[in-house]
Amino acid sequence: MTSVGATDTNRPQSGMPAQQFERIGWALFLVMIGGLALVPSGLVPEGTWLAGTGLIMIGLNVVRHLNGVRVSAFSAVLGMIALAVGSSAMAGIDLPVLPALLAAIGLQTIYSTLSAKRGTP
Predict the structure, then answer these.
(1) Helix (H) or strand (E) holding 107
(2) Domain span at 75
(3) pLDDT tens string 9-60
(4) Angle ∠(105,89,53) on CA atoms, nearest 5
(5) Is 115 left (phi over 0), alpha (psi -120 to 50) or beta?
(6) Distance from the Cα of residue 51 to its chain's centroid
(7) CA–CA separation, 4 vs 34, rounded Å?
(8) Is residue 8 assigned to a domain?
(9) Is there a domain that residue 4 lies in?
(10) Structural domain includes residue 2
């Protein structure tokens, strides 16, 4: 039985299957990497690919949310970390990547565990 206004998490309201969002994200990633590889190394600031990857991951989750598809909190957090680390590298600031990544994984695990408990009776 389906309630009024409910949406299937695999088929967004726009009718585009959720897998197409993933494919578009991967395509954008490959285009970015290929485009950056074509530019001479001295012209591309260090960290550009990481900031671009973060933007793609965050953007993909925004589009998924706007189309009624479940957002991946894990990839959203990783996208934010990638954007922060890439932007800081472009600005010449050194951020500790490994501790930030470990903290993000730990926070995601806590969040998913607490969310799962709320969903059970």
Answers:
(1) helix 97-119
(2) 18-119
(3) 545 555 677 788 889 999 999 999 999 999 998 899 989 999 999 999 999 9
(4) 55
(5) alpha
(6) 11
(7) 45
(8) no
(9) no
(10) no
Residue 46 tokens, joined:
């260090």
The pTM assigned to this predicted structure is 0.70
Domain assignment present for residue 99? The answer is yes
How high is the mean pLDDT of the chain? 83
Question: Residue 61: which region, alpha, beta or left (left: phi > 0; alpha: psi -120 to 50)?
Answer: alpha
Tokens read off for 121: 């009776």
Note the pLDDT tens digit of each residue in 50-86: 999 999 999 999 999 999 888 888 888 889 989 998 9
Number of domains in the chain: 1
| Contact status, residue 56 vs residue 75, Cβ threshold 8 Å | no
The secondary structure of 54-84, three-state, reads HHHHHHHHHHHHHCCCCCCHHHHHHHHHHHH
| Pick from 61, 63, 68, 113: nearest CA to 82 | 61
Q: Is the pLDDT of residue 3 over 90?
A: no
